[in-house]
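Q: For a teaching handout, I want to show students what a protein-ligand complex looks like in token form. Below are the inputs, and the small molecule is protoporphyrin IX containing FE. Please produce the holo structure.
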Amino acid sequence: MESIHSILIALVLKRGELQDMIENTKCECGHNNPVGTILCECCGKPLDEALINKETIEKEMRYEGKARRSQAFQSALFDRVWNFFSSVKVAIILIIITLIAAAVGTIFPQEKFISGDPATYYSEQYGIYGELFYKLGLSDMYSSWWFFLLLAMIGISLVVCSLDRVIPLYKALQNQQVIKSPDFISKQRISHREEIDAAEKEAKLNGLADSLAKKLYHVRRDGDAILAEKGRISRWGPYINHIGLIIFLFGVVLRYIPGWYLDEFIWIREGEIKKVPETEYYVKNERAFAELYDQKEIPKGLNVEGPVVKKYQTDAVLYEKDPKTGELKPVHKQSILVNHPLEYKGLSLFQSNFEPGQLDSITLKVTEKKTQKQAGTFTVKLYDLNPNQVYQVGGNLEVRVLEYYPDFALENNRPVTKSQEPNKPAFIFEVREKGESQGERSWVIAGQNLDSLTKENQYAIDLAGINVVNESGLMVRKDRSLPVIFFGGIISMIGLVMGFYWQHRRVWARWKDGMLYIGAHTNKNWFSLRRELQQAARRADIALTLVKD
Amino acid sequence: MVQLMENLLYATFILYLLSSVTFVMGISGNKEKKDEARVRRWGNIGVGIAITGAVFQVLFIITRMLIGGHFPTSNMFEFTAFLCFTIVIGFIVIFFIYRSVVLGAFVMPLAVILLAYASVFPRDVQPLIPALQSHWLYIHVTTAALGQGAFAVGFAAGLMYLIGRVGKEKKGKTGFWNAFWLETTLVVVLMFVGFSLINFTFGALGYEAKFSHQVDGQPNVQEYQLPPIAGPHEGKVIHMDPFLGLTQPLFEAPAWMKGQQAAGKLNSVIWSVMTGLILYGLIRLIARKSLTDILYPLVKNLNPELLDEVSYRAIAIGFPIFTLGALIFAMIWAHEAWGRFWGWDPKETWAFITWLFYSAYLHLRLSRGWHGLKSAWLAVGGFVIIMINLIVINLVISGLHSYA
Ligand code: HEM
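A: Here is the structure, written as tokens, with protoporphyrin IX containing FE included.
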């Protein structure tokens, strides 16, 4: 209990407060600093022994010399985990591992892009390396647990490192003092000092303040000191970006909740009604077609061979099933085009495949053999054929379907069907004259002439025509976490823009005992700051040479 | 109209070339006496020409749009040419921030080389297949390319930094390896030049060879515009203009190179490498210096800190744009076209890798203090990844994005 309690305090309490309860470090200027503080919170004087002799305090400036949780606690298991994930070094290593893994996964195509059985495909296509690729689980890498784990660890790292830094940074930037110790100023990466008489100092300080203000700095003055600052929002950029990334990753995780994410595929022929998988909806394909570019539409000078498809379209109707009556009632009607999916209450149907001219039904004609007189025709729907379907043919014939093999084959001399697709339809019909109790049996197999088999028959059944329709492949998608994911993306972008298109620049100036100290800091682009500061100083008659023009 | 379009392209090319020459002359004419004003004047002329070139390229894009009815970024030629445009834009922006004249002497030739490279690919305007008919596609591709253009400027500045460093400190072990890899990088750039040169040469000569071979059991015909050093696996010559007495390919591509054009691509790579090496040999013979030493005088007076910052700044400007274009807009488009915002196809994956790489760069720089040499090498590495994405992934490991 005790330890959980202290962890909670450590998490919830702002860093300083917890530490104040334990021990403080007092600076010369009289300020009490929390343990772990490197630069005095008030005057900026280096507190750490090791720093006092250093030329520059550049490194410590990143978090303004503030104590961070990861530096203050290092013993308990929780702290170790915390420190692990708060380390940018670890973050970089995670990023690089992810990067390399992602690259390795593209050496051969992933399983979802291949056709065929992965177990044999890789070794057949790519030999020993292909087999290795498959055996190591790289062939379906991006949905593997370990790839997910890598992303999850980056996510945790993002959360922890942001929490570890943003609060101390926020406090430090909120409570900046104008008067900094000369030590702090001259240990900045950009620093300058110059002897100035007391009589001159006012003019110089004012001049510097004015010219910095002209460069859009926000200038504060306190006694003989100046603090000029601009672009502070740049410091929040990375954190806002990271928060965006966290939201994004969170959105991705949300998709694992059942019902939040749907990824299915259906083939549907013209005229067909099919259930949309995993939903209560049904969809009908009223018409499907491909349109080619008209020769006139292809501008002169274009070098094309053969026809080019302009669009694929499926006119679809979405139905909902009434739970009581079981009746389908239409709820939405739309043409689906590539890039223009059908959208209804979060469900999307995408035009994804198109197969023209799929066999849908065949028309058969019945002939009386002796007289060669045609008795009539009938049409068999290959996809929905009722058992014992009876067709009325001509005036006095009835044809009954006894057996139907959509994909006919002979196995051990017995007729079987290899699939439910009508690739090679075969039938056994019974042809019966009206009023008779007994009919004759007749075999019909696509593409085969069976006349010799049924010599005694009175009637022959032959193919009179086939009817084809177009078939559309529709992707069925639902993604309820999409708003979260895109929200994360937008936040992340805002953070990036803040972080990169602004820079946090500060200039400290202080006159003390006949000496003018000037120091400057930026979170990036030092060269530009040098140039800017040099121009500003020159206007204030301070001979500051930082770069050659 | 088509003629106008072609002329606009030539004009763009000539202007970029002129701009490069101006920048190089501006600095190299200034060896002994340091005449800052003169350099600045030449720099202004150079950037003026570059801007004019960019305007011509805009006109070229507009004409092509009028002809083809869509924004021209949908095949290898169009995309690579557009990438040149974004590199020039990136350069112009950075130029006006830092006024670095020498940068122009590196970036503009890079744009010239890439534009020549692009022009080798088929330049016909093609009608758009349905999957590509979406506004988001253009928004996505153009934004991503803008980011990559900025990265390319970062690459050029990184190279300049490296040339300066290596030129200064050649001794010692690190000096040796840095020099070696830098020279290698420059030779690879020469190979791009070689690729364009050799293709234009044989194109002008009207060289042709044709082979029949099998792809997955289907007969296939491959046409070569370069003399076949490597022919298709088990291919038969249908027709082959003799080349230096050669009437047969020297060898066959290995069996695992299966694609319809795979052997021809291998052949182009061999030619590019050879031409690049020959060019390199000639340069060394004539100048009796390494490429690094030839270029060193251009950068030796520059402040390394400035180059380091220019390289970083370009990448920092490019990163948000690239994120927006190559990831966010790409997701929106993929969602519209395929109903999933991310599918791990090779092209997407490599955009993700590029992004991760540059984010590692930024973290290393910000938090681990990787400035200067390391940072410059990372800038080079990032551009290599972009080129891998453009060339290897497009032409070899083709995914959904694979342009005709
Ligand atoms: C693995 C988890 C990550 C951790 C622990 C992490 C940590 C950090 C830290 C500590 C900073 C510096 C903040 C500062 O000093 O003010 C930073 C900056 C940044 N991070 Fe991350 N980060 C992570 C992942 C990412 C990822 C995946 C990206 C991808 C875009 C990213 C993009 C950035 C950017 C753009 C900056 C600003 C760099 C600059 O200003 O130059 N971070 N990150």
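A: Two things your students might notice: The longest strand of chain A covers residues 347-368. Chain A touches chain B through 65 residues (CB under 8 Å).
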